[in-house]
Sequence to fold (243 residues):
Amino acid sequence: MARYGLIGRHLSHSFSQQYFARKFEQEGLRGHRYDLFEMEAIEELPRLVADTPGLCGLNVTIPYKQAVVPFLHVLDPVAAAVGAVNTIRISEGVLSGYNTDVDGLRATLLPLLEGSKPRTLVLGSGGASRAVVYVLKELGIKFRVVSRSRETGDLTWDLLDPSLVSVCPLIINTTPLGMFPNVDGIPDVPLGALGPKHCVVDLIYNPERTRLLYAAEERGARVQNGLAMLHAQAEASWRVWNM
Fold:
C-alpha cells in the first residue's frame, strides 16, 4: 500500500483527504491511501514516518510549514528560497521538501492579474505568506507584508490604515482568520477603504466565502478564495511524489 497524508495541528478544516481519495478512485489506484495526521508538535514527525509503513509523501499545513525544514534531509531550491515547505517526498528513508504552494499561487493569481502589476498587501507572515511573497517578487509586483511584529513583516496591524488599503488594489489574506470552525474571524482590515478597484484573495477555502470575502464583495471588490490554489498545489504535490 502506498500511503500519503497531511500533517498539521488542527485538520478538521481540510479537504485534502477527500480530494486525494477521489483522485485515487478516478485513477484506479486501489492500493493508495491518504490520511490526516494531527500532531501537537513537529518533533512527532520522525516517529510518524517510522511507524507508518508505505508512507511515500506528506503535505504540510499550519503551523509547520517553516518548522518542518530542520527535519528534512533535502530541500528543493524553490522551497529553500521560500523558507517554507508544504510537500514532503519520502523515498528510502530520505525526506525531501518542496513548496507547491508556489504553483498553486501562480495558478490563482495569473488569471486575476491579466498582466497587471498592482501594489499588494499581504496579510500575515507565516509559511503561506512566504510563498505569496516569492511569487509576487517573481512577477515584479511591489508589496508590503502585514504582521504582528515588524521582525516578520513590513508593518504591523495597527499601521494598516484606510489610505494604505486604498492604494493597494490587490489584498491577499494568508492568515487563518475566518477558517472553519472559527468562521467569525476576520483580519483587522479597514473594510470601508475597499471598493470596485480592489481584488481580495483569501487563501482559505473552508468556508468558500469568509467574512473578509463577503465584506469585500459587498463593497464591489472582486474576490477569490483558496480553492483554485488548493487544487493546483495538490496536483503539483502529486507530481512531486511520482517523480
User: Anything to note?
Assistant: The two ends are 18 Å apart (CA to CA). The longest strand covers residues 2-8. The chain has two domains: 2-99, 102-228. The first helix runs from residue 16 to 26.
